[in-house]
């Protein structure tokens, strides 16, 4: 545990708790992903009976480090095992860290052992966003012969606040190559996935929402929002700049534009004027460096 991690533990946990208290509907502590897996945040001791009785939890996969569960209020191994719940501990550092694919595979096998048992597995880290999501994603890939985008879409539809960083995505893709039986069978994967969607209307409807923005071809509304603010452009040294017009959205390429008045090539709008070694952009305009 680093000083930064220990410093960030309580504020980030308090943030999740506050959001949950303000609106448990918009920010639930946990979400059921399928008939076997529940993905959630660090459980409290007061939640154990609820999870066992309401959600039929028979197993727990804990992705936190020891210092994250070593509190009088946190549900630890001994608390779960005292209730007859199986416990699998896979400690991973918070934020941008990951683990070996062999460790992920052992956790996936633990979850798989509860299939068709009538019991569920509660998979958690501190906030139920990153470390635990990585495990659940790999489990869904293994179980359903899906590729990572299909599994991620399902989890995102159930628990929208999940996020995976570059390191976790690398682990997921390495896991797919090493353990997923349909790595080279993309059509088979998505056929299985769309068959699943056919039986789940709510999930199918959520796919009409964009999962990513097209940065090269933004909508007119996005363009208007993007160009509302005024900017002060640093003095250029020896590079060209693209200045986008807020009226016609055409690009004008200029050099050393902090020294001159720039006029749009499309509609003759004044794009920027020099001001004290800086270029004052006209409201609605934007700029970027040319990439070579």
TrEMBL record:
A single MF term (Gene Ontology): zinc ion binding
A GO-annotated cellular component: ribosome
Pfam families given in the database record: DSPc, Ribosomal_S27e
Boundaries of every Tyrosine specific protein phosphatases domain copy: 102-170
Tyrosine-protein phosphatase domain mapped to chain residues: 29-181
Compartment(s) where it occurs, according to its Swiss-Prot or TrEMBL record: Membrane
Cofactor(s), names only, from the UniProt record: Zn(2+)
InterPro entries listed in its UniProt record: Dual-sp_phosphatase_cat-dom, Prot-tyrosine_phosphatase-like, Ribosomal_eS27, Ribosomal_eS27_Zn-bd_dom_sf, Ribosomal_zn-bd, Tyr_Pase_AS, Tyr_Pase_dom, TYR_PHOSPHATASE_DUAL_dom
Cofactor note: Binds 1 zinc ion per subunit.
UniProt feature coiled coil, ranges: none
Domain of life according to the entry: Eukaryota
Family label: Belongs to the eukaryotic ribosomal protein eS27 family.
PANTHER family per the UniProt record, alphabetical: PHOSPHATIDYLINOSITOL PHOSPHATASE (PTHR46274), TYR_PHOSPHATASE_2 DOMAIN-CONTAINING PROTEIN (PTHR46274:SF6)
Record-given protein name: 40S ribosomal protein S27
């Amino acid at each position: 545990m680093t000083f930064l991690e220990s410093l960030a533990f309580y504020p980030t946990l308090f943030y999740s708790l506050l959001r949950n208290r303000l609106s448990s509907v918009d920010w639930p502590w946990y979400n059921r992903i399928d008939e076997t897996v529940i993905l959630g945040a660090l459980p409290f001791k007061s939640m154990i009976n609820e999870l066992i009785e309401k959600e039929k939890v028979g197993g727990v996969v804990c992705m936190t480090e020891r210092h994250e569960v070593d509190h009088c209020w946190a549900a630890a191994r001994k608390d779960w095992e005292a209730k007859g719940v199986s416990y699998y501990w896979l400690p991973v550092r918070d934020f941008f860290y990951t683990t070996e694919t062999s460790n992920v595979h052992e956790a996936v096998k633990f979850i798989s052992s509860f299939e068709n048992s009538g019991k569920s597995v509660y998979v958690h880290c501190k906030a139920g966003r990153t470390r635990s999501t990585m495990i659940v994603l790999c489990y869904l890939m293994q179980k359903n012969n899906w590729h990572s985008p299909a599994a991620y879409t399902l989890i995102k539809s159930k628990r929208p606040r999940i996020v995976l960083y570059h390191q976790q995505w690398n682990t997921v893709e390495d896991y797919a190559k090493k353990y997923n039986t349909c790595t080279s069978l993309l059509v088979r994967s998505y056929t299985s996935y769309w068959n699943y969607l056919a039986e789940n209307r709510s999930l199918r409807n959520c796919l009409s929402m964009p999962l990513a923005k097209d940065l090269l071809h933004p909508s007119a509304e996005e363009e208007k929002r993007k160009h509302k603010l005024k900017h002060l452009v640093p003095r250029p040294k020896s590079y060209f700049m693209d200045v986008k017009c807020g009226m016609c959205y055409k690009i004008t390429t200029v050099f050393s534009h902090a020294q001159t008045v720039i006029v749009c090539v499309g509609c003759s709008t004044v794009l920027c004027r020099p001001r004290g070694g800086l270029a004052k952009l006209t409201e609605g305009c934007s700029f970027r460096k040319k990439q070579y």
